[in-house]
Design a protein that fits this description.
- The chain is α/β, with parallel strands linked by helices.
- It is built from 13 helices and 18 strands.
- Strands 1, 2, 6, 7, 8, 9 and 16 form a seven-stranded mixed beta sheet that branches. A four-stranded mixed beta sheet has the order 17-15-10-18, with helices on one face.
- Helix 5 packs across helix 13.
- The longest helix has 22 residues.
- The chain is globular and about 65 Å long.
Length: 528
């Protein structure tokens, strides 16, 4: 049975979803689907901070220029400029809500809050809450959401698909409750804030990464996807085979951390004049190359020279976590390895978050806004969440109600697919992607990945129509098809650019490159 209609449905409760809910709820009622407090999406794990032009010594043009350089010729300059210009007001809004950003203790400081510097940035412009910015922002926003009378927070539902009418407009989402029961949430407008697709890979920086579920749900309604081949691998994830993933923030290198090989020698100065502060794609590939040269499964990140007081002051969370894993970062270097971190592509949107499907919007990492181009610059992601969630809210505050139109039919099957089988197949997808579609790709590997993923789709497709809906099955089916689209995007780009590096086509191609654009219909019939 459909649930009662809701004006605005937001799927995803990270920073983008929480900001949007707060900004729109004064005008329209909101239902927000959010994971449990223990999960809270990738936003919670963001350590470094938010990039914004805040210091009198910085300016918008410099931030725009740095972003365009990092994006390697593929940024949408209008999106870059729009995002950067929204930064100061967005930070002031967060401060007004009580986000505990770290003050600058220097009485001569030109800005009251401490600003750090990260890779690709030519100035100190990263405002942060110690080294746990994402957690501080999420917890502050959630407190306001929980108190707002016009926001209905649902932590008991998981969206598995979107609802369309016969005109092709989005009308809400199909969800499963905690007992596997189907719940249909109808909405005048639906917003995806579901995160990226780093969960397509075996090693990630998040304990429970998204697998691109929102991207594929949008694609099922006919939405355009863009730039899926540009998956960012964070250069420095803690190498800890016995523990959960843990990110070692870009800010550690921003404050002077040095990358060392097995002999204790710095290798980044030989790779790039910016050394450890080069953009993430450059650093991740350099680490990958060094690991292959040495035969080691990690390199080292050294902050000992900063001194224990500075380490504890700037990186209390990292210091404490590493200590819990038996590593005293004030006295020994940190073992690190690149891991899947951030999706630079996603569901194509305009500057107000609108997708190519009427009444469907996307904000945050699920969206392809054009800001990041071929490579995301550090700490521009949370800025993007703020800028686009607030602009999307401005659009939706005064949106008219949709016209009446019959819904498309959908009849779920009844045959169960064991959760263990779904998990095993998802693990197989992740292995294929990690082996052939990761930091460095080759033509032969991409071709093999395409064939293996297609075979999995052929095996799984016949039972999908008969299967009883479940969260693991939905996640697998979304991930498998998005993986196939990602490989198709990587094979179609016959050049190495930004995060897409293929030694078989190492040079830039067209000096005015175009975004890659794909639809679910571009795959073979087994994908549908």
């Amino acid at each position: 049975m459909p649930d009662s209609p809701h004006e605005t449905l937001i799927i995803g409760g990270g920073i983008a979803g929480l900001v949007l809910a707060l900004e729109i709820a004064e005008r329209r009622p909101v239902t927000l689907l959010q994971p449990s407090r223990e999960a809270l999406g990738a936003s919670r794990w963001a350590q470094g901070g938010i990039a914004a032009v805040l210091s009198p010594d910085d300016d918008v043009e410099a931030h725009v220029a740095d972003t365009l350089v990092a994006g390697d010729g593929l940024c949408d300059e209008a999106a870059v400029r729009f995002t950067v210009e929204q930064g100061p007001a967005a930070i002031e809004w967060l401060l007004s809500l009580g986000v505990p950003f770290t003050p600058d203790p220097d009485p001569e400081a030109r800005y009251p809050y401490h600003l750090t510097r990260e890779g690709g940035h030519g100035a100190r412009r990263i405002i942060h809450a110690d080294d746990a910015t994402g957690r501080a922002v999420v917890e502050t926003l959630r407190q306001h959401v929980e108190r707002h009378p016009a926001i209905r927070l649902r932590t008991d539902l998981t969206a598995i698909g979107l609802i369309a009418d016969v005109a092709g407009h989005c009308r809400g989402a199909r969800c499963l409750d905690e007992n596997g029961g189907l719940v249909e949430l109808m909405a005048a407008d639906t917003v995806l804030a579901t995160g990226g697709a780093s969960g397509l890979f075996r090693h990630t920086t998040s304990p429970d990464p998204a697998c691109g579920e929102g991207m594929l749900m949008a694609a099922e309604l006919g939405a355009e996807l863009m730039n899926l081949e540009f998956q960012q691998f964070h250069p420095t994830c803690l190498f800890d085979p016995d523990g959960p993933p843990f990110l070692i923030s870009e800010a550690v290198r921003g404050e002077g951390g040095l990358l060392l090989d097995a002999d204790g020698r710095r290798f980044m100065p030989e790779v790039d004049p910016r050394a450890e502060l080069a953009p993430r794609d450059v650093v991740a590939r350099a680490i990958d190359a060094e690991m292959q040269r040495s035969g080691r499964d990690h390199v080292w990140l050294d902050v000992r020279h900063l001194g224990e007081d500075a380490i504890r002051h700037h990186f209390p969370t990292i210091h404490a976590y590493c200590a819990s894993r038996g590593i005293d970062i004030a006295r020994e270097p940190i073992p690190v390895v690149p891991a899947a971190h951030y999706s630079c592509g996603g569901v194509s949107t305009d500057l107000e978050g609108a997708t190519t499907v009427p009444r469907l919007h996307a904000v945050g990492e699920v969206a392809g806004t054009g800001l990041h181009g071929a490579n995301r610059m550090a700490s521009n992601s949370l800025l993007e969440c703020l800028a686009f969630a607030r602009s999307c809210a401005r659009r939706l505050r005064d949106a008219s109600a949709p016209g009446d139109a019959p819904l498309t039919s959908w009849q779920p099957g009844t045959s169960p697919v064991p959760d263990a089988e779904c998990q095993a197949l998802l693990s197989e997808v992740r292995t294929i992607m990690s082996e052939s579609v990761a930091i460095v790709r080759h033509d032969a590997g991409l071709a093999a990945a395409e064939e293996r993923l297609a075979e999995l789709a052929e095996r799984l497709a016949p039972c999908i129509a008969e299967a009883r809906p479940s969260v693991p099955l939905a996640r697998l089916w979304h991930a498998l098809r998005l993986a196939r689209l990602t490989v198709a995007s990587a094979r179609a780009r016959r050049e190495s650019r930004g995060l897409h590096f293929n030694p078989d086509c190492p040079l830039h191609g067209d000096p005015a490159p175009q975004p890659s654009r794909l639809y679910l219909s571009d795959l073979t019939p087994a994908s549908h």
